[in-house]
User: Fold these one by one.
Assistant:
Number 1:
Amino acid sequence: MSAVRVIAGYALQEAVRRRVFSVVLWLTTLFMALYGLALWQVFKRVADIHPPNGIEPRPFAGATVFGLSMFATMFLGVVLGVFLTLGVVGGDAERGLLQPLLVRPVSRTQLLLGRLVAAVAVCTVYVACVYTILLLMTGLIGGWWPDRIALPAVELAAGVATVAALSLLGSVFLSATANGIAVFIVFGAGLVAGLLGSIGEALGSGTLKTAAHVASWALPFEALYQDGLAKITEHTAGFASFILKLGPFGGAHAAGPLLGVWIAGYVLVVSALALAGFTRRDL
């Protein structure tokens, strides 16, 4: 495990040298400032919001705005995770950075695991911090708090880690540019599946709902996001629950207790495929 820690440390030092964290910090701060401005304006005019009958304006506004913030948090975390992993194999091999590492007593397994650990650690901390700050802003400015607080943050972090694992797998077979494009297309496909689920829910279409459900489990970061959205209004019932669970950028659907097991198995399979491909790759 010492070699894994060394590789993870090397990946973090490389990100610092390239000023990745500085750029992320400044852009995230800008996003939070804009979110705070939006919150202030929304809740300043909350009395002018007229949701469907039976729904209180403040919970409606709070759940909608915070749902949007959850999407933004996941998206920013995915961007960070992808750029930390998109060139782990293909990009570093093209630049001649892999060969000196592998000449030393570092196996390919340790190299991949170290880079994945570094990316997941950074993204997990980032998502947790951003989620917490946006949660506090929503509660303190808007006076609305989600029904569940910790679990949605865990699910967003797990979703970002899943995308990072997919990006690591893609880096074994694709160049950095092609891998980045492919991963973001896959991420977009997951979001489209969520939107289809919302449309199917609104129209009562069983076909659309089934297709969206299958797609969200095939791309489980979307299932995690949907479950997180469901958790923030977990104790809301009736027509209000139906409206709020249509959700921003994908419907809110509780995934059940098997989601965690599925995610763990999914990441293990993706990592095993990445290792198998890396082992057979000629550098």
Number 2:
Amino acid sequence: MELSKKRLLILVFLIVFFSLYNFTIYTSKSNYGPIQFSELAVKGEAVWLQNNCNSCHQLYGLGGYLGPDLTNEYTLRGPEFIKAMAVSGVKVMPKFNFNESEKSALVQFLKEVDHTGFYHHISDSIHAYGWVDLHYKKTTYESQ
């Protein structure tokens, strides 16, 4: 009988601990503070939405599956690559006729998206013996 009381006490303790932990996690404020896009990034978001980029591409893992997730494209490829792809397209991606201000705004939008979150990893390498090395992006940013 004594053993079952100990088990019950441990179970109650774990349930209370789990409940308090979840309450703390899901009701606390983020350490990052409010995330606000710059004026140029807001214009870039408008370009993104007007051209329905989300139907093919993902941000933060949400969106279409025809194109790649662009959450960290700024880190991976840089602004010049983004501008080139946005204009010329590739394979099934249509060719857009963005002017320079639209391209700059789109790049700024993707840059700020890149700074606010990250896709699970930016690259991987698979070894012949089955081991997979995941390479994560830098998750801290200096103020710019």
Number 3:
Amino acid sequence: MKTHPRFISFEGIDFSGKTTQLNIVREKLDTIGRPTHLVREPGGTVISEKLRPIILDKAHAEMHATTEILLYSAARSQLVHQEIWPMLERGDYVIADRFYDSTTAYQGAGRQLDIDFVARLNRFATSGLTPGRTIFIDISPEESVRRRKLAGRGRDRLESESIAFYHSIREAYLTLCRDNPDRFVVIPGEDSIEDIAVQVWEQIVSFWSL
């Protein structure tokens, strides 16, 4: 794997607040004159954005787990090779709203696919690219459900899964954090947005020596 020091990813189960924190970070980076590219998964390119609704549409309930992981990996591969690698090679900084750890957690643990195969597919789809730092914002599945209801937002195909599905995903993330302590940072996601933002920014400043 090719760990890249100018590449940071954010992970978390649905409604963890990671996207909110990503936007706060980008504003702060712009303010201090460190423009940073923000990309999301699945998406970020014309091809990847076309795959996104196919993956998430609730009408596609019949989608097989292997189809799901291949579609996610296809979207990620296009994003990496069309956008992320060229940005990094230019010397730019990149933050991703999800990366291959999502596939390890959601498809590997959640769908119970062979974890060795998932790891090989992740490496293949990304040409071995690995974030230098991954910030995992941790909330319970019960808190995720509470926030979704509070937001009054409908559920996509993945969000329609059972609470047990999300417990397995959270445990997979926590295992990744324990197994990769040099890359992962765990931030409690049930604090206030402001408190979480302080902790996230401290990690960005420290890792990128701002």
